[in-house]
Design goal:
11 helices; two-stranded antiparallel ribbon; 2 domains; alpha/beta; eight-stranded parallel sheet; TIM Barrel; Type Iii Antifreeze Protein Isoform Hplc 12; about 350 residues; 14 strands
């Protein structure tokens, strides 16, 4: 799979996406600084979210439009006001995208309705991301797929049947490059609820690239995901969690994100292939194994015993598996203490 000029797949290092979300705190200056710090941290792509409060919900503080769950990060405000804080103004998209591209990152977004897709098309985004809460919005998926560009779909909350509908809708509408991201839609998510073993199963089921949209704290889940075959890693990014922001609690700071890029690439490198026996790098280490040595001077015709032979390091003599076979046999020639045993010195 290729997005823009970047190859994505198990033959390549993980593709790491920095999600800005609402961590710009309604400051374009801060947004541009986030772009710069994400680039310094090694992110391969920067992602925004494209919506307005009015394309997401209605302005109401009654009933289900008010966040009353005390466990929610956003408790005590209406959904509309949350989106007012979190949305990225549409006129910011171009300067943000331009800055990202100048710094060598891919830049794209998650559209949340059809008007957002139309807008993002005017900016010639290289791909699209469907957020977890929108993976059941089949009309939106079809609209994005019809652009012919690669699609990334987060799978939070989706059943197998719902994912089948989403994948079928995307492919039937023209998507030929699809990536699904294993995601747990809690903020933050816990490792216990991550269920990363779903990743290889999802790959087999839908025959496409699989990654992770990771809302857990730290790096462990992302590294484990790579070990299970994830080729795309998405993490929220902020300058400093202490600055606050709608998603700051579960976002990585620059040094942490840099470590994410480094450690997920190391995990990918460590996968290698099915391999037994010494690798090329281990060839010299073979001599540090134990082998059979004379530990006393041995005269011609003298019998080998556990007193004059031992299995010690290094490994230049016969392998320890031959030790019992040597006991009781005789020396063909004088053998000096510290000589590695070979078949040629045995009578």
């Amino acid at each position: 799979m290729i997005i823009a000029d970047r190859s994505i797949g198990q033959d390549h290092a993980p593709f790491v996406i920095a999600e800005m979300s609402g961590n710009h705190n309604q400051s374009l200056e801060r947004a541009l600084l986030i772009v710069e710090e994400a680039a310094k941290a090694g992110a391969h792509a920067l992602k925004l979210q494209t919506y307005t409060p009015d394309t997401m919900t209605i302005d109401s503080e009654e009933g289900e439009f008010f966040i009353s769950d005390p466990k929610s990060l956003w408790a005590g405000q209406s959904i509309y006001k949350l989106y007012q804080q979190a949305h990225t103004p549409w006129d910011w998209h171009k300067p943000i995208f331009d800055r990202a591209r100048e710094l060598g990152m891919m830049a794209f977004s998650s559209p949340f309705d059809e008007t957002a897709v139309d807008f993002l098309e005017t900016l010639d985004v290289p791909c699209y991301k469907i957020a977890s809460f929108e993976n059941v919005d089949l009309p939106l998926i079809r609209k994005v797929a019809a652009t012919g560009k690669p699609m990334i779909i987060s799978t939070g909350m989706a059943t197998v049947a719902e994912l089948h509908e989403a994948v079928s809708a995307a492919r039937d509408a023209g998507c030929t490059s699809l990536t699904l991201l294993k995601c747990t839609s809690t903020y933050p998510a816990t490792p216990l609820n991550s269920n990363l073993l779903t990743i290889p199963h999802m790959r087999d089921l839908f025959q496409c690239e699989i990654g992770i949209s990771d809302h857990t704290m730290g790096l462990g889940a992302a590294v484990a995901a790579v070990a299970l075959g994830a080729t795309v890693i998405e993490k929220h990014f902020t300058l400093d969690r202490a600055d606050g922001g709608v998603d700051s609690t579960f976002s990585l700071e620059p040094d942490e994100f840099k470590a994410l890029v480094t450690e997920t690439e190391r995990a990918w490198q460590a996968l290698g292939k099915v391999s037994y026996g010494p690798t090329a790098a281990e060839t010299r280490a073979v001599t540090r194994r134990r082998s059979i040595y004379a530990v006393k001077d041995i005269a011609p015709g003298e019998s080998f015993t556990k007193d004059n032979l031992r299995c010690i390091r290094p490994g230049h003599g016969l392998m320890p598996k031959h030790f019992d076979a040597l006991i009781g046999r005789q020396a063909k020639q004088p053998i000096k203490r510290g000589t590695p045993m070979t078949w040629s010195v045995i009578a």
